[in-house]
Write a structure and sequence with these properties.
alpha+beta
C-alpha cells in the first residue's frame, strides 16, 4: 500500500494532541507540579517555565466543507473552541537562540493544511521558527532558531552524564492541557531497534500525548534527554540522551530510518532504509520542501522495486493468474480489486455494503478492499452523463450521502455533506488504457485529504478512494495509481445511459475504439467489434431506452499478450423482466487449470448439454444455449457460448426460433 512507518511519526511515538480537539493554551501549572515533585527545587520552576514552550500550528482560517447542520462547537471546552491554534507538542530552549523538539512534532507541519509550526509561551505569545539548524529523523530531534526571541530569553542547563536510578522529571504539554511536571526514575538504557547505533533512556515518569519534544530533567532541573515515545508493552517511556543532540553535526539534516513498504493487492513487503542528507540551515518552508522531495522519491523507488521484485508472480503473469485469465467475467456492477491469495492465485476481492438511495433512481453502493474504499454510483435519471462527469462536486456530494465522512465535535459525529471543489482535477490513463478522473479534496481540520480515482461507466461511476494524511498525499496517490492496473469493472447501464455515455469520447477506454454499438429503439440493436458482431430486432426481445446492456470486460491472452477486452455481452429487455440474451467468450484451458475448467470446455466444444440448442426450464425461466465459432476453424481455441432466456413457460419451437434470430447475424471475427 505505502510506507508502513511514516517519517512523520515512528510507531509507538506518543501522538501529540494535535487533532481537531486538542486543548491548545499553555497554562501555568508549575506550582501544582511542585507538590507532585517535591524534591525538585521550587526556585528552578520559573526558569523551567520560561524555557519550555508549546509547539503550535495555526488552525485553518477557512473550512471548505459543508455539514448536515451547524457544528455544535458549544459542546467543546471554552478554551478549545476559542483558541486559534492546535497544540502539537513541546519544545525547550538551550540558549543562544537554540530550541529543541522531537522531529516528529515539527514534521506535523510538512505539507500541512495548518500553519507552520511555532512556539507559544506561558503568556500566550507565539514565536515563528527562524531556521532549522540540526535534524535527525532516526534519532528524532530537531534544533532550530526563532525569527524573534522572547523578550526575556531563558535556557535550561544540560547534564550529559546522568546517573541510572536517579529521580527524573518529564516536562511537557501533556494532552494539550498545559505544561506539567511529573516525576519518576531513570531506570535503564536500551539499544535503538534498527541497528543498536545508540541507546534510548528509559524512565518511569508519566508522559502523555503532547509531551513529545519536551525536556527530561534530573533532580537539579538540568536537561538529560528529550521525551520521545512510549513503550508498547509496559509503563516505561523513552527519551533521547541530550548528548546525542549536542554532538550531532551542525547544519546537517540526516535521514537513516528503516521503513517497510507494502502494496495492497499482495502480502510481499520490502524492508529498506530511507537514507538522505541535505544541508542546513533552512527556513521551515525550504526544509519541508527538501524533506518532502526526498521522501516522495523514496516512496517512488519502493513502489517500483516492490512491483519489480517478483515479476513472474505479478498479475497477469505466472500460473497464479491463469484462473482469472480463463474465467468468464464477473457481470456484477460493483467493482473489485484483483488480489493475490495465500496460495499465489489471483482472484477478485471486494466487500460490498448496502445501497444508499439518491433521487430519481440513483444510488451509491460502498465497499472496501484492504485500506481502499470502493464505490459504485448509479447516476439519477435526471442527471446527464456530461453533467456528472464534468462536475466533481456533484459526484462527491452523491458519495458523501453514504455518511462515511464525519467530523467529531465532542460526543457528536456531524456528517459532512459536501467537500466543495477539489484542489486537484486531472486525468490518468492506466496500463489498460482506461481513463480515470483524479481528484483531491482537503479536509483542513483533520490535516488530511480525500483522494479519488473515478472511472466513468455507462450508469455512473466506479470509484477507488482513500483518505490520507496531507503530508503523504504523493505516497497514497502513486499507490492508488498503481492499483488502477488491478481494478476489475463491468460496464452496465440502460440503452439510454449507454447512448449518453458513448458521447463522452475523451473519457472512454481505448478498448471502445474497436467497438460499435448501434441502437435504434423499436427497430434494431447491433454490436460489432474486432472479435464479435451480432444484431437483433424486437422479434427477439424489446429494444427501448430502458432495455439493459452489460459489457463484461476481462483480462485474457491474445496472441501471447494479455489484453483487457470484452468477453461477455449481455442484453435484457428491461432491468426487471427475465428476458435476456448474451454472448460469452470461452478459451481452451491451460494445462495447469483444474478439471472444472477442462470439463466445461469439453461440454462447450462438443456442444453437450446445456450447449446443445435444446430448450430447458429452470426456476420458471426457459433457457436455450448454443455455441458459436469462427468460420473455417476445425478445432478453435476460442468459442462463444450463446444464451437466450425467457421468463415463464414457452414452447420449445418458440425458444429455438428465438435462438435462431439471435444467431442469424452473429459472427465470430477473431482467430
Amino acid at each position: 500500500m505505502h510506507v508502513m512507518e511514516s517519517p512523520r511519526r515512528k510507531p509507538g511515538f506518543m501522538r501529540t494532541a494535535c487533532s481537531r480537539f486538542a486543548l491548545l493554551a499553555l497554562v501555568s501549572l508549575f506550582a501544582a507540579a511542585a507538590s507532585h515533585a517535591a524534591s525538585l527545587d521550587p526556585a528552578v520552576l520559573p526558569k523551567i517555565q520560561a524555557a519550555t514552550f508549546e509547539v503550535v500550528a495555526a488552525k485553518p482560517v477557512k473550512d471548505p466543507l459543508t455539514y448536515e447542520k451547524p457544528l455544535p462547537l458549544e459542546l467543546l471546552p471554552f478554551q478549545e473552541r476559542n483558541d486559534k491554534y492546535y497544540s502539537i507538542g513541546t519544545a525547550f530552549a538551550l540558549g543562544n537562540n537554540r530550541y529543541v523538539t522531537a522531529a516528529h512534532v515539527l514534521q506535523v507541519g510538512i505539507d500541512s493544511l495548518w500553519g507552520e509550526p511555532a512556539l507559544r509561551d506561558a503568556g500566550g505569545h507565539v514565536y515563528a521558527i527562524g531556521k532549522i539548524e540540526k535534524y535527525s529523523l532516526q534519532q528524532d530531534f530537531v534544533v532550530f532558531s526563532l525569527a524573534t526571541q522572547p523578550a526575556q530569553a531563558a535556557a535550561l542547563e544540560v547534564d550529559t552524564t546522568p546517573s541510572l536510578n536517579g529521580v527524573v522529571y518529564a516536562v511537557g504539554n501533556a494532552l494539550g492541557t498545559g505544561v506539567v511536571i511529573r516525576d519518576g526514575l531513570y531506570t535503564s538504557d536500551t539499544p535503538e531497534d534498527q541497528d543498536g547505533r545508540w541507546k534510548w533512556m528509559r524512565f518511569s515518569a508519566a508522559a502523555s500525548p503532547g509531551n513529545s519534544g519536551g525536556p527530561l530533567l534530573d533532580a537539579n532541573g538540568k536537561v538529560i534527554g528529550i521525551v520521545l515515545m512510549k513503550s508498547q508493552n509496559e509503563n516505561l517511556n523513552y527519551a533521547l540522551p541530550i548528548g546525542r543532540v549536542l554532538d550531532a553535526p551542525d547544519h546537517v539534516a540526516s535521514i537513516d530510518q528503516r521503513m517497510p513498504y507494502q502494496f495492497d493487492v499482495f502480502d510481499t513487503t520490502l524492508s529498506n532504509t530511507f537514507k538522505a542528507e541535505f544541508k542546513l540551515p533552512l527556513s521551515f518552508a525550504d526544509f519541508s520542501a527538501a524533506f518532502q522531495q526526498r521522501f516522495n522519491a523514496y516512496a517512488d523507488s519502493q513502489l517500483k522495486a516492490l512491483l519489480a521484485k517478483e515479476p513472474e508472480r505479478l498479475f497477469p503473469r505466472g500460473q497464479g493468474s491463469n484462473e482469472l485469465l480463463h474465467s468468464t467475467p464477473s457481470m456484477d456492477d460493483f467493482p473489485s480489486l484483483i488480489t493475490r491469495d495465500n496460495d499465489g492465485t489471483w482472484s477478485l476481492a471486494k466487500k460490498e455494503g448496502g445501497k444508499t438511495s439518491l433521487s430519481n433512481n440513483g444510488y451509491v453502493t460502498p465497499g472496501v478492499v484492504g485500506r481502499n474504499l470502493l464505490f459504485h454510483v448509479r447516476r439519477p435519471d435526471n442527471v446527464t452523463a456530461a453533467a456528472l462527469y464534468r462536475d466533481p462536486v456533484k459526484l462527491m456530494d452523491m458519495i458523501a450521502r453514504v455518511g462515511f465522512l464525519t467530523r467529531n465535535v465532542g460526543p457528536e459525529q456531524v456528517r459532512i455533506t459536501s467537500l466543495g471543489k477539489p484542489v486537484r482535477d486531472t486525468l490518468y490513463t492506466d496500463a489498460w488504457q482506461r481513463r480515470w478522473q483524479v481528484r483531491v479534496w482537503p479536509i483542513p481540520a483533520e490535516n488530511a485529504v480525500v483522494m479519488s480515482f473515478a472511472l466513468p461507466v455507462p450508469d455512473g461511476y466506479a470509484v477507488l478512494m482513500r483518505i490520507a494524511p496531507a503530508s503523504q498525499e504523493h505516497d497514497f496517490l502513486i499507490n492508488l495509481q498503481a492499483l488502477t492496473d488491478f481494478f476489475y469493472v463491468t460496464y452496465d447501464g440502460s440503452l439510454a445511459q449507454w447512448q449518453d455515455f458513448l458521447k463522452q469520447k475523451d473519457l472512454l477506454p481505448a478498448a471502445f475504439d474497436d467497438i460499435d454499438i448501434d441502437i435504434d429503439y423499436g427497430h434494431r440493436f447491433a454490436y460489432s467489434s474486432k472479435r464479435l458482431r451480432y444484431a437483433y430486432t424486437p422479434a427477439l426481445q424489446k429494444i427501448d431506452k430502458d432495455s439493459m446492456l452489460t459489457i463484461g470486460f476481462s483480462y485474457f491472452l491474445d496472441h501471447g499478450k494479455v489484453v483487457w477486452d470484452v468477453t461477455d455481452v449481455w442484453q435484457a429487455a428491461s432491468a426487471h423482466d427475465k428476458y435476456w440474451s448474451n454472448f460469452a467468450r470461452v478459451v481452451v484451458p491451460s494445462d495447469d487449470l483444474n478439471d472444472d475448467y477442462k470439463s466445461n470446455w469439453s461440454k462447450i466444444s462438443n456442444r453437450q448439454r446445456p450447449f446443445d440448442g435444446v430448450p430447458r426450464s429452470e426456476n420458471d425461466v426457459m433457457k436455450i444455449s448454443s455455441v458459436l465459432a469462427a468460420p473455417g476453424q476445425a478445432r478453435p481455441d476460442v468459442l462463444y457460448t450463446v444464451y437466450h432466456y425467457a421468463e415463464g413457460s414457452h414452447p420449445a419451437a418458440e425458444m429455438k426460433a428465438k435462438l435462431d434470430l439471435l444467431l442469424k447475424d452473429a459472427r465470430v471475427t477473431e482467430h
